[in-house]
Amino acid sequence: MVRSAFTDENFLKYLDTFTKLEFPTVGLMLGQRTDAKDFIIHFTRTPPYRGDAEQSIKKFADVPDSWVADHARHVTRMLPGGMYVLGLFVVCQEDIFATCVPKLKAMLSQIHKRLTPNAFLYGTPQQTEKLVLHYSQLSRYVCKSYNYDTFSLSNAEIKFQSNLAVKWLQVECKYELDQTFPIIAERANWPLKKHMNEILHLINMNLQTAVYFFDGEIKDGKECLETIGKKQKSHLRLSQPEDENKLMQVTIVLPMGGDVAPEVEILNSGGQIRLTGHVASKVWLHPKATVQYASDAIMQDIVRSLAARLEMHWDSLLEEEHGSPEDTNSVHETPRRVLINLPTTKVTLSDYLFPGEGSQEAQISLSELLDITIAQPDAIFDVEGQPDIPEMTLEGPEADCDDILASSTNRKKYIMGLVIAFVVLIISLLIHFIKG
């Protein structure tokens, strides 16, 4: 069975702009995959290689595999849950399916290796195929599908349509975080990255066993989202035009720890990590998506967003904050999420801004990673806002509180002793004068 993909015809003009260049252009195709077909929402070229061998890239075989794979990892951070890097596009005059098949396989394998190690990014869908599109002035375009299991290329079909008729279903969720994680004394010397990976693993496990309410109701996992929307609309009985992007609100109820260990073990605590804030989650799903698919997409979006922020935060740290007394009590502020509408669809992608950064920094990263030019800063939506750091820093470790209480108690005892000594002195003087 030939795999089919659908996308907007405006991307043909985008691909055609690269045919005038003297060197090959490689990029990524982003979108959502179903069992039967793929929906491509965006094409983005990989930034030109900035290494020492920049001048030597004259043909497709010269493009570094690791450079394209690294681009795929950065772009995956920006995708909402349920969206993936669906494949590669290559714009050049040479026939890559005739002369560069080993190079194609090596590049696709490198992308797979780069996205697989961090499971929290959810960079690889369940399907084991990637699309490869070759575009040139002479033969226009040819599409193939690469299977990671069989290491083989097969024919695929891509259709560029005007006004791509996909009524994306929009699902929103606000995931609140306010939890304290104790650190076992034996793990107190772990680096911050290792501690946060453990916490991210716990969050991921909790979300996998959580209950997801759609518009306040529990739905059958096999029920189609489009069917739910039609039922809700029939109950409203309103003569309004059908909205292209139906909105559903999801509420997550986390498990309360029902699986209690048979034995209770008391462990020494070496500290604690408090995680507070919220994740603004917004995913876009094709009309035939089921409730279970939507639940998985929300879970992936939350975990992927947290993993992306932590990766960026770790890369920004100069050194680990542990070992010295002044670093034992510190606040880490990870990047916040902003959303951007794609030019050809209402689907939104994400970017992450560090404290103090604004829309200008987002415009730079969008241009470099997604090849999107945002003319108006108000097209970037700050959906999470700045965290309230002073409120977080009011609470210190319990040891500090104990020291304060002990110091206050000693002070009261000292004052009480002075008062008693003064009273005894007055009484002694009175007795002395009376006897005299």
TrEMBL record:
Cellular localization per UniProt: Membrane
Keywords, in A-Z order: Membrane, Transmembrane, Transmembrane helix
Membership in a protein family: Belongs to the ODR-4 family.
Main location class: membrane
Domain of life: Eukaryota
Gene Ontology CC: one annotated term: endomembrane system
Single GO biological process annotation from the record: intracellular protein localization
Protein name as it appears in the record: Protein odr-4 homolog
Transmembrane segment boundaries: 414-434
InterPro entries attached to this UniProt entry: ODR-4-like
